[in-house]
């Protein structure tokens, strides 16, 4: 029975990380509106788990980099993993799957992808939005390093703008020093 409680704890952490990131965005809305009245309505951004609804929406993507259907199986095998679908209103704009290592010191981003082809309302913002949730979750589970697993070459500059750099072992990492809680 203790195992179930542990898994429930991680479910709560995932949910709370998504809620806190959404709350951060809500706080930005007022500041941005004051500076520019034409700014998009950030309250339409939602962070949800990757579920059947998200995977059905994913099926409409043109030429995605990753096959996301297998994430459902991963979630059942990895109860500490974090899965995020990023929505703007009713449109799926991004997906992310991350997993802490066994010692929970490092949170590894296994996949992160914005909707390819054309444009969507959150174009060029998916990495930043996903990191808001990822950093919250990392603090909940006690990770102090976020690592991008096998980053695509074209994505490396985007990650570097988000504060990632290559460590001595050649891994693309970001050290979390200040809790965002």
Automatic annotation (TrEMBL):
InterPro entries with a match to the protein in the record: Acyl_CoA_acyltransferase (IPR016181)
Full protein name: N-acetyltransferase domain-containing protein
Source organism: Pseudomonas iranensis
């Amino acid at each position: 029975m203790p195992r179930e409680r542990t898994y429930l704890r991680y479910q709560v952490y995932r949910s709370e990380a998504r809620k806190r990131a959404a709350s951060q965005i809500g706080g930005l809305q007022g500041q941005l509106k004051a500076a520019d009245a034409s700014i998009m309505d950030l309250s339409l951004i939602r962070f949800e788990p990757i579920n059947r609804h998200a995977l059905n929406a994913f099926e409409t993507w043109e030429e995605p980099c990753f096959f996301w259907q297998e994430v459902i199986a991963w979630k059942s095998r990895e109860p500490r993993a974090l899965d995020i679908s990023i929505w703007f209103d009713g449109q799926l704009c991004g997906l992310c799957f991350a997993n802490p290592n066994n010692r929970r010191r490092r949170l590894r981003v296994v996949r992160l992808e914005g909707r390819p082809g054309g444009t969507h309302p959150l174009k060029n913002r998916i990495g930043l939005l996903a990191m808001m949730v990822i950093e919250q979750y990392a603090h909940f589970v006690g990770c102090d390093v976020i690592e991008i697993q096998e980053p695509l070459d074209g994505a490396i500059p985007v990650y570097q703008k988000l504060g990632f750099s290559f460590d001595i072992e050649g891994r693309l990492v970001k050290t979390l020093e200040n809790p965002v809680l």
